[in-house]
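Customer escalation, tier 2.

The customer says the design service returned an amino acid string that "doesn't look like it belongs to this structure." They asked us to rerun it and document both sides in this ticket. The original structure tokens are below, unchanged.
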């Protein structure tokens, strides 16, 4: 059910011809509930796609009626023409839904530089047919329509006492944090104030999507949106809602990690006993972005020296000769020197856990990443074709 699991939402996914495969490529999510609360976080990449520029303006008043999403073209670096396309997309949806264009978010994903006249025509046609196809059980269709290099749709739901959160996500490459790391739409029938929705979303993304660092490449089109409509009539405790939202976001983040382009290992890097959480994140990210480490994991090689070399590039407080490193439960390094034999480490399973003990404080953070494979290089070398 995805984004239509909560009460008062409709969605659809249709094929508008943007994908050469003929698969669905335009999705629409509409809030039919009594309230139209919206919150969003966006890529911090200075190079922003036209839909991001538009949506940042729309979200300013925290009122959102609908979200239109397309795959098959990023509409990024397509100039004033591309921004007009985004504007026309919102206007088309607004006309058909009888709402204001200023309350319609637009998201696009696909090849940067794609967004000509043909693209525009197909998107606008997709909007019209998508709105005509809206259903209260259309969440799964919408989740399929936003896929690009994803191999499977990504959806999640969390239900509490009388209220529900539903979500869909896309993303398999260019997964690196910066407030958001993919296209995500989350819906809830809980009754929230706009400020509460915004605070809960930022709190959840900070410890979920922002901790996913698949390949160190930040997209130009990343957006995570939360829509709240109060259709349940229940106003939850903000901490309870934020916890449930975080649970859903972590679920989606782990699905994104599992579907990362070409990956053969899903790696969780837990940094323990750092002075601050920020430093723990910095250390974990230094390992997650280290190509030598990622290549070693691909080869099932427990090369802990590459872990120490990576964290040595950070500004975090630690003594390089008092650090422990464990791989899949085997402590291979202690006090900056060898511990258990490498032969005891089994890295053949898909799931790999790295633990780094800095022995400096009590802060902890976990970064999610994956290995660097031949398939990843091949897929991204041929992406445009």
């Amino acid at each position: 059910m995805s984004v239509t699991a909560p009460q008062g939402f409709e969605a659809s996914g249709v094929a508008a011809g943007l994908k050469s495969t003929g698969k669905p490529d335009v999705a629409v999510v509409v809030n039919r509930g009594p309230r139209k609360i919206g919150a969003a976080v966006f890529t911090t990449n200075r190079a922003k796609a036209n839909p991001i520029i538009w949506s940042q303006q729309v979200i300013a008043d925290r009122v959102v009626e609908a979200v239109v999403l397309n795959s098959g073209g990023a509409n990024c670096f397509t100039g004033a023409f591309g921004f007009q396309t985004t504007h026309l997309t919102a206007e088309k949806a607004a006309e058909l839904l009888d709402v204001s264009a200023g309350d319609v978010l637009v998201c696009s994903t696909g090849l940067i530089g794609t967004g000509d006249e043909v693209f525009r025509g197909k998107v606008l046609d997709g909007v019209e047919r998508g709105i005509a196809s809206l259903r209260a059980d259309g969440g799964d269709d919408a989740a399929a329509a936003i896929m690009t290099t994803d191999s499977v749709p990504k959806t999640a739901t969390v239900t509490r006492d009388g209220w529900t959160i539903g979500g869909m996500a896309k993303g398999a490459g260019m997964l690196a944090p910066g407030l958001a790391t993919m296209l995500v739409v989350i819906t809830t029938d809980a009754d929230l104030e706009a400020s509460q929705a915004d605070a809960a979303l930022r709190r959840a993304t900070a410890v979920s999507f922002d901790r996913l660092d698949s390949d160190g490449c930040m997209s130009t089109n990343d957006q995570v949106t939360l829509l709240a409509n109060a259709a349940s009539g229940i106003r939850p405790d903000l901490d309870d809602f934020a916890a449930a939202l975080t649970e859903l976001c972590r679920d989606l983040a782990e699905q994104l990690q599992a579907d990362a382009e070409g990956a053969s290992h899903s790696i969780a890097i837990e940094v323990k006993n750092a002075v601050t959480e920020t430093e723990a994140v910095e250390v974990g990210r230094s390992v997650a972005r280290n190509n030598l480490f990622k290549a070693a994991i691909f080869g099932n090689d427990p090369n802990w020296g590459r872990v120490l070399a990576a964290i040595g590039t950070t500004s975090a407080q630690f003594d390089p000769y008092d650090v422990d490193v464990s791989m899949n439960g085997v402590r291979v390094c202690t006090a900056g020197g060898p511990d258990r034999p490498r032969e005891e480490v089994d890295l053949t399973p898909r799931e790999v856990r790295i633990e780094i003990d800095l022995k400096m404080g009590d802060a902890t953070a976990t970064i999610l990443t994956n290995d660097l494979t031949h398939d990843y290089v091949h897929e991204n070398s041929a992406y445009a074709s």
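Tier 2 assessment: The sequence is consistent with the input. The mean pLDDT is 94. The CA atoms of residues 44 and 178 lie 5 Å apart. Sent an explanation to the customer and offered a walkthrough call.
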